[in-house]
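Sample entry (245 residues):
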Amino acid sequence: MKQVVLVTGAASGLGNVIAEYFASQGHQVILSASTLEKAEAAKVRSVNANNMFPLKLDISVEADFHAAVHWIEEKFSKLDVLINNATVTKATPVLEITAADFDWITQVNQRGTFQSCQIIGKYMADKGSGRIVNMASLAGQNGGTATGAHYAASKGAIVTLTKIFAKEFAAKGVTVNAVAPGPMESPIVHSVVSDEKMAQFIQNIPVKALGSMEFIAETCALLASPNASFVTGATWDINGGLFMR
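Predicted structure, serialized as tokens:
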């Protein structure tokens, strides 16, 4: 079954890989970014451009969520899948994090995910079906290794928000799950771990390798499947053995 899929933060990095994967499977993908220009540029670069629909959605701005719901209703009359991928990352040492930095990371990562689940999730629940996948992180489970405390705390909050909204929407046809990646072969990881330190960083991972963004995309698609109705409130760990439970 072909789905209408919204991916936040889809102009680059992991979000773009996820959007491309869904589009390659024939789904209609709403490729959202903090500016329309970024979203449109990502569509131009895409090999699946015919299945991509650019949208401005800055997750730090509440009004953007309401505008997105209105746009989705007018264009598609439904939304099957929401991938809450957009976040910001900083690797500031814990004793150097300013209040302004902490508030900004919290506003984007934690509040952005909350409002996305609240506003867009309600739209899906009112329609009677939907799949929400939130992007958590290993950092939110073990306190982080190469990332900042404010980032780790916001990702831990996303795990909790996933459970809260899973309970809220469970009887309304909407599942809410999270994926918690460890270090990926991705631009973000390479931006926070220098080339000089990368070899040792990889040696500290039990499987001795970085993870695959493509596999994260496939995992999101599995959780977004119509057959995934019995999975809700879960956080799936994909971390190379760095965190086991």
